[in-house]
Specification:
54% of the residues lie in helices and 8% in strands. A five-stranded mixed sheet has the order 2-1-3-5-4. With 267 residues, the protein is α/β, with parallel strands linked by helices. The chain contains eleven helices and five strands, in the order H-H-H-H-H-H-H-E-H-E-H-H-E-E-E-H. Helix 9 (190-196) packs antiparallel against helix 10.
């Protein structure tokens, strides 16, 4: 039991990062514990977070979590129910509501000193458009996306684009998604193996995999090394967009077109 407790404690430390948000939330939590009089707020922001953390660290809780058939690797997600940011923000608002001048100054100073510039983050960048995804992904999707709103196409994308494609156009299906770029999940996908695993892409192996998965389009970084020119294997070069080559596989495209014609005739 003690071993499980220590594992849960390590997970908690890694989740919080022992950064300033945890400290600020703890200060705000203590303040709300002393000053907050609204029973609903106390239940939501004072008692419930404490109960979640205690249960998370309690060894039996983790055993029950796993016994229920849930993945022990995702046990950390229980901590998602602890609204640390909300606790601090509400506690800060309550503080400067009572002490307007000094409260605003102290709260603002804490945010500035304990925070970090958001655009320094690896996955944060300034918005290029209303969709808040890179323009490159939009250009590629607009090129290969289906004209008919009820139709769809299938395309294999480099890992850095897959998050944005599925946000922008649900009509573009992909043989693999985020599950393939999270190492701890260890999933297997033949298209991903052929597309991303080798240093030099074997175009014949890639074509075999994408045709078995009926991918009409292949999007590949310009600097991605291949053993032969993809056009020598029958792929049709459509365009180069911001350092990405877009190819169409006429074999798969013809197969998909035949399917669509068949289903239209059936209807």
């Amino acid at each position: 039991m003690f071993g499980i407790f220590m594992e849960s404690l390590v997970i908690f430390k890694l989740y919080t990062g022992l950064k300033f948000l945890l400290l600020l939330s703890a200060i705000a939590w203590v303040y709300l514990l002393i000053r907050e009089r609204d029973k609903r707020i106390r239940l939501l922001l004072v008692y419930a977070p404490l109960l979640v953390v205690v249960l998370f660290l309690f060894p039996v809780s983790r055993k029950v979590f796993v016994a229920a058939g849930l993945d022990g690797e995702t046990y950390y997600r229980v901590l998602w129910t602890v609204p640390m940011g909300l606790i601090f923000v509400y506690g800060a608002c309550r503080f400067f509501a009572e002490h307007k001048r000094i409260g605003v100054a102290i709260s603002g100073l804490l945010v500035v000193l304990c925070g970090s510039y958001v655009y320094k983050g690896q996955y944060i960048s300034k918005a290029e458009n209303l969709y808040h995804i890179p323009d490159t992904a939009i250009k590629i999707c607009d090129l290969i996306g289906p004209e008919d709103p009820g139709a769809y196409v299938s395309a294999v994308m480099p890992p850095e684009l897959i998050h944005f494609v599925r946000q922008y156009d649900a009509g573009i299906h992909m043989p693999y998604g985020r599950e393939m770029i999270v190492n701890q999940w260890s999933y297997y996908n033949a298209v991903y193996e052929a597309m991303e695993k080798p240093e030099v892409v074997d175009v014949d192996a890639l074509l075999q995999a994408v045709r078995e998965d009926y991918c009409q389009y292949i999007v590949m970084a310009k600097n991605r090394a291949t053993d032969v020119d993809p056009q020598d294997r029958g792929l049709v070069f459509l365009d180069e967009i911001d350092g990405y080559y877009i190819y169409e596989d006429p074999v798969t495209a013809k197969t998909v077109e035949q399917w669509q014609d068949y289903y239209e005739d059936e209807e």
